[in-house]
Design brief:
mainly beta
Length: 65
């Protein structure tokens, strides 16, 4: 599966950029948007991104370089 970049827009107005991730992670995050906690498996560890308002997928991994 090709890798890309996920941009998480959080309820507290912060942005989190995850580079080199699979699109299925974005789908997992989308399913949790609006919840108090967005908990995903990343690199073998559970990560809590807090409350995510919206997530955007880009099929490039060089965003932000």
């Amino acid at each position: 599966m090709p890798l890309g970049t996920a941009v998480l827009y959080k309820e507290d107005q912060n942005i989190v950029i995850l580079r080199g991730v699979e699109k299925e992670l974005v789908e997992e995050i989308k399913s949790q948007c609006g919840n108090e906690h967005c908990i995903c498996q990343l690199s073998g560890e559970k990560v809590d991104y807090g409350s995510v308002k919206h997530v955007l997928w880009m099929d490039r991994v060089d965003i932000g370089d």
